[in-house]
Design brief:
Radius of gyration: 50 Å
Structural class: alpha+beta
Distance between the termini: 56 Å
Strand order of the largest sheet: 2-1-5-4-3
Largest sheet: 5 strands, antiparallel
Helix content: 40-55%
């Protein structure tokens, strides 16, 4: 069973198939080339023979026309391999011939012509190349036909054609057999790197995505394939890391609301349902925690959709000042515990190529965060924009307490609210996902985001957007 499987694998292998194809093509080209060569040689020989037959035939006619009879010396000058016949066209009387068996029913032609008659001889067929011409004796006006011919069974080109199956075919068979094995070994050696890649890829699992396929210095198609695989592994690794992070974030952040819901439910089951005040308080707590869970899940799903590329930005050119004015109008009319003032510092003619709705979501998160953590009597937010080289810099600055130095590296991490325990800030009703979503969206838009503190101590967030982002 094992030998049959090995034999089947050999015949189905790529080296075998490519070698077989190469051998078939080589055989066809070789046979066609040799046959073409024989045909061309045969055609060339027959052409030269036809010229010679025509010259000898006309020589006989010229001799007869001048002298009225055939000069014996002229007949002796005709090559031995050329047969001729001079006979009366009406009576079939033969005047001169060196081959009585030469047929006399041949049609006259302007150039040499092949004639074949099967079983003409008792021991074979007749195959000749002949030239025939009619003329009349000057004195008697008797119709005369002159034929000169060559037997092709003695022609070397014909002999070569006859010997072809016995000499060339065995030679071709040996040649293509050798070519097949050379091609097979060469193909097998050529695709060996691909086989090694397949073995290495087969061993790779989700925990071994750091594996890198070797790349040689040849910089050929196989190296390009290896680089493509390595790039694929990097993308898959990022996807796995993102999914693990998503699962970890969800499980971590939902522990608290689930614990609250479970605790309140047990409290109601034990005795709280008989206490009207406790019943209402527990139900409100469960409803709040359920809403919080819903918000968290929706935000995480939104981040996941952007990171996986399922949501694509729609790039359009729009005015930055008008964009800031829209944010100013929207936040001026929100219900806030403290007075809010939104200032704009921007060139009125400055334009940007980006997705205005996604960018609006980013700055909404910034401004909501500034209002949420403002500890002043008036919350003042400044929106600024400048052009710098090939980028547009957008700023959101507030007059709050700013970021703590230890928090700056983590402000864009999911669920980070400035608490080292990474728990939700219930008092501020913060899930710690607003800035994380803003960072993800900015990355989708082809930009970069940075958090810092202004000279006055307030929070300053900078967004760099390229003038011509890649769509």
């Amino acid at each position: 069973m094992k030998s049959k499987s090995t034999e089947r694998k050999f015949f189905n292998s790529f080296p075998f198939r490519i070698s077989l194809l190469f051998t078939i093509i080589l055989s066809v080209v070789l046979i066609f080339s040799v046959l073409s060569m024989i045909f061309i040689v045969d055609l060339s020989v027959h052409r030269k023979q036809g010229i010679e037959l025509e010259r000898n035939c006309k020589g006989i006619i010229d001799n007869l026309s001048l002298q009225g009879r055939m000069n014996t010396d002229a007949l002796l000058a005709i090559p031995y391999y050329i047969t001729y016949s001079v006979y009366n066209s009406k009576t079939d009387y033969v005047y001169f011939t060196n081959d009585p068996l030469l047929p006399r029913n041949l049609k006259t032609t302007e150039k040499a012509k092949l004639y074949f008659e099967k079983n003409y001889f008792t021991d074979g067929d007749l195959k000749i190349l002949y030239y025939s011409q009619n003329f009349r004796f000057p004195e008697t006006s008797e119709p005369v036909t002159v034929i000169s011919a060559i037997y092709l069974d003695a022609d070397y080109a014909t002999k070569l054609s006859d010997l072809f199956p016995y000499t060339f075919i065995p030679f071709v068979f040996v040649l293509i057999t050798i070519s097949f094995f050379i091609s097979y070994l060469n193909t097998k050696r050529t695709i060996e790197p691909v086989v090694n890649m397949s073995r290495q890829v087969r061993k790779i699992s989700s925990s071994e995505l750091d594996t890198v396929l070797p790349v040689s210095s040849r910089n050929d198609e196989l190296d390009e394939l290896a680089r493509t695989f390595n790039s694929l592994f990097i993308r898959i690794k990022k996807d796995f890391a993102r999914e693990r992070q998503f699962s970890s974030d969800v499980s971590h952040e939902l522990k608290t609301p689930l614990a609250v819901i479970s605790g309140q439910a047990k409290l109601l089951l034990r005795w709280g349902k008989d206490d009207k005040n406790q019943l209402e308080a527990s139900l409100n707590s469960i409803a709040n925690e359920a809403h919080s869970m819903q918000v968290i899940i929706e935000n995480l799903l939104q981040i996941s959709r952007y990171e996986s590329g399922r949501l694509k930005p729609e790039f359009v050119r729009f005015n930055v000042f008008e964009f800031f004015e829209r944010l100013q109008r929207e936040f001026t009319h929100i219900d806030s515990e403290i007075p809010l003032e939104v200032l704009i510092d921007c060139d009125r003619n400055l334009e940007i190529l980006s997705d205005s709705e996604l960018l609006h979501q980013v700055f909404t998160a910034f401004m909501s965060n500034s209002i949420k953590f403002c500890d002043k009597d008036v919350c003042r937010i400044t929106l600024r924009a400048i052009k710098q080289d090939e980028k547009i810099l957008l700023f959101e600055e507030d007059n709050g307490r700013g970021f703590a130095k230890k928090d700056l590296p983590n402000v864009f991490n999911r669920f980070y609210t400035g608490d080292q325990a990474r728990t939700r800030n219930v008092q501020k009703n913060s899930t710690g996902l607003g800035l994380a979503i803003a960072k993800t969206i900015t990355s989708v838009l082809g930009g970069k985001i940075k958090a810092s503190n202004s000279e006055d101590g307030g929070a300053l967030i900078t967004v760099k957007i390229p003038k011509s982002p890649k769509k």
